[in-house]
Design brief:
This protein is α+β, with helices and mostly antiparallel strands. The chain is built from 4 helices and 6 strands, in the order ααββαββββα. The longest helix is centred in the N-terminal third of the chain and has 14 residues.
């Protein structure tokens, strides 16, 4: 589990708890850090609401074989985390998320990740 440093800002704590939960396949734990009406802007489009996030993050989290936190920083309302994920098909799937946090809950996520390794894996699997 990733432990926030002592004195870490509220947003960083929420972001790290969210990251730790989904990278350990604890989707319910991850969702508990999200506001019910969370909005996530991801490369594939906008995801709205906690249950929609379950459908989006759940399958990916279940496929993880590893995750490495690269950096996490922020203030009371905003956190930025960067990580690298590993799945059976993709050795390096780097991503970054900017979280807006209100009253300890993540209300907005802007997610950026490299889609190319995943597309290459899909193409290789269909060949």
């Amino acid at each position: 589990m990733t432990i926030p440093p002592e004195g870490a800002a509220t947003a960083v704590t929420a972001a790290l708890e969210y990251y730790t939960a989904w990278t350990q396949r604890d989707i319910d734990g991850a969702l508990s850090r999200l506001a019910e009406n969370v909005v996530c802007d991801a490369p594939a489009g906008r995801i709205e609401g906690r249950e929609a996030m379950r459908g989006f993050m759940g399958p990916f989290a279940e496929s993880l074989t590893g995750a490495e936190l690269i950096a996490a920083f922020g203030d009371d309302e905003t956190a930025l985390i960067m990580y690298d994920t590993t799945t059976p098909a993709v050795a390096h799937g780097p991503g970054a998320e900017c979280h807006t946090v209100v009253d300890g809950q993540i209300t907005h996520i802007t997610m950026i990740f490299d889609r190319l390794p995943f597309e290459q894996a899909r193409q290789a699997a269909s060949s």
